Amino acid sequence: MKCTVCRGEAVIDLRRHNANFCRDHFLRFCRDQVAKAIAEHRMFGRDDRVLVAVSGGKDSLALWDLLVDMGYQAEGLYIDLGIGSYSEASTAASVDFAERRGLTLHRIDLREQHGYDIPTAAAVTRRVPCSSCGLSKRHLFDEAARTGGFDVVATGHNLDDEAAVLLGNVLHWQTEYLGRQAPVLEERDGFPRKVKPLVRLSERETAAYCVLRGIDYIVEECPMAAGNRHLRYKEALNALEAASPGTKHAFYFEFLDKAADRFRPEARASQEELRPCTSCGAPTTAEVCAFCRLLERVQGAEPVPVEVLGSKGRRRRRRNGAAPRRAPGDGETATAAGAGERVRR
Ligand code: AMP
Ligand code: FES
Ligand code: ZN
Ligand code: ZN
């Protein structure tokens, strides 16, 4: 297999681009795709301070590496979610990456700083773990950007993630979310700008990037997300992609080009007025924000180890007990729960 650019030995074939690349040309390809996403969607400039949300996985570490390599001012933010050995491995990968490169990593420990962890929050709220997880991450990303004076928060969502979220939103005709699904969410009423510079790269590509750059990332997926809908949508898209390379890219980017605008009015109509949370000051539609309400519910709860919790957030020994309760939410959604993405903010 020869590199399409230099005819040297290729290390990867990219069927959707009808190309093979050697190591150097593949790394250049990744940088070019990220540069294109940043420029096309006007994500940020050289003077902006970027806070990269880092999970220790391939996407966010590749993103941080790429941004630093491209000369952007990028610091990391890691949240220890308290998900047993998974969080221990995530912490180690994130800290090790930052230390080796002399980069600044801001760290938040949910248990130490806020008195709870995700398995306990899932058990107390009796909702899928990804629900309190997503809510906590969104709140803490926003707060860290605000207090740290960052211009933008960057996450490692890739093409596979975005195409899977789009598929979920289409299957359930979530028109409001369709109107908000974009690689950039502008700053609004105290929320920082949020961007996804990896939208032009697939999961396979970010994994290959890490391997070729010698980045040690955690391969293990979150044990609490096992079997969720988002993973099923990814599998379905992978089957389509295998038969017809380029399907995911066309699905997502043609949605942005040809359809996303049609849903904007629905998204705007549902944008309720925001005011500061009376407890923490974060923007919210309610008197007290969803994060502070979660804090109130979980304070003092007996810690629940990951092992006794099913992926639906219920303790395993409880057999289909009470129906999951839903708190009135500003920002929490059932459909987006577990989707690894929240289109609402
Ligand atoms: P996920 O929701 O796990 O698919 O992750 C999507 C993105 O959210 C990742 O690429 C990271 O940018 C960010 N992220 C996920 N988990 C964490 C974490 N524990 N701390 C900081 N950022 C995270
Ligand atoms: Fe949030 Fe798994 S990473 S529940
Ligand atoms: Zn080459
Ligand atoms: Zn609050």
Key structural traits:
disordered C terminus; 345 residues; alpha/beta; 13 helices; binds FE2/S2 (inorganic) cluster; binds adenosine monophosphate; binds zinc ion; 45% helix; globular
Please give the alpha-carbon distance between the first and last residues: 46 Å
Q: How much beta, percentage-wise?
A: 5-15%
Largest sheet: 6 strands, mixed
Secondary structure: number of strands: 10
The string of secondary-structure elements, in order, is EEHEHEHEHHHEHHEEHHHHEEH
Residues in helix, %: 40-55%
Low-pLDDT residue spans:
317-345
In DSSP terms (H or I, runs of 4 or more residues), the helix count works out at 13
- Whole-angstrom Rg: 20 Å
Shape: globular
Bound molecules: adenosine monophosphate, FE2/S2 (inorganic) cluster, zinc ion
Mean pLDDT: 89
